[in-house]
Specification:
The chain is of the alpha+beta class and 250 residues long. It has 4 helices and 15 strands. The protein has one domain: Creatine Amidinohydrolase (Alpha-Beta Complex). The longest helix has 21 residues.
């Protein structure tokens, strides 16, 4: 079932989204070679709780951490741990969610660690732009698939592939709600977008082929060909004045 949000609901979600945005901004200065991924997780949890919110991911279906931290060929759902340090030249996706006043916010960015190759930087730039193009299609009257079509068309035109097994999602009082929001597809398919729909759009774009697999920890998803992947995500509300980014910090 799809739950459409009132203007008041959306303001609650914007408040949750601001904390996610601010958490990721706070972490930027810590994205350095040698920094431990568990340290980043601890910083994020402390920041979120200090702002009277709760980490959405911690305990969700048994996930043990506040952040999903995924490096290089890790696409999403990497688990922070004491053994994993950031290295010069890595790219690292950090995905964060918060729960505030009964509503969730969900936001992800991929960061460069130190000096990254031009190939990795371009992958990040294209993925971020594919998100922006998907958001542009999140307007009343469009079809849901118009979002994924925009993401896929741009990413593939730049020589990359889009992960099929993982998708964006509706979001509200639950972290994951209907509808699913694929990052691929033909135009003009799926539900018609209406005012009050809130979704998380999150392109996952691979430098190599689209195939992925799950590691033995049951969470971390990596590219099958072990080539790098990038991930960006925003929580978006469909409004009469166009798509409203709830995780922009504004």
């Amino acid at each position: 079932m799809i739950y459409y949000k009132s203007a008041e609901n959306i303001e609650f979600m914007k408040a949750a989204g601001k904390i996610v945005h601010d958490t990721l901004c706070m972490l930027e200065s810590w994205i350095l070679p040698g920094v431990n991924s568990l340290k980043l997780d601890e910083l994020a949890e402390e920041y979120i709780r200090s702002h009277h919110a709760v980490p959405s991911f911690k305990g969700y279906s048994g996930f043990p951490a506040t952040l999903c931290i995924s490096r290089n060929e890790e696409v999403v759902h990497g688990i922070p741990n004491k053994k994993t340090n950031l290295h010069d030249g890595d790219i690292v996706s950090i995905d964060c969610g918060t729960l505030l006043n009964g509503y969730h916010g969900d936001h992800a960015r991929t960061y460069a660690v130190g000096n990254v190759s031009s190939e990795k930087q371009r992958l990040m730039d294209v993925t971020k732009q594919s998100l922006a193009l998907g958001i542009e299609k999140a307007v009343i009257g469009n079809h849901l698939s118009d979002i994924g079509h925009a993401v896929q068309t741009y990413a593939e035109s730049q020589g990359y592939s889009v992960v099929r097994e993982l998708v964006g999602h509706g979001i509200g009082q639950r972290l994951h709600e209907d509808p699913q929001v694929p990052n691929y597809g033909k135009e003009g398919r799926g539900i018609i977008l209406k005012e009050g729909l809130v979704i998380a759009i999150e392109p996952m774009v691979n430098m190599g082929k689209a195939g992925v697999r799950t590691l033995s920890d049951g969470w971390t998803i990596v590219t099958r060909d072990r080539k790098p992947s990038a991930h960006f995500e925003h929580t978006i509300a469909i409004t009469t004045s166009g798509p409203k980014i709830l995780t922009s910090g504004m």
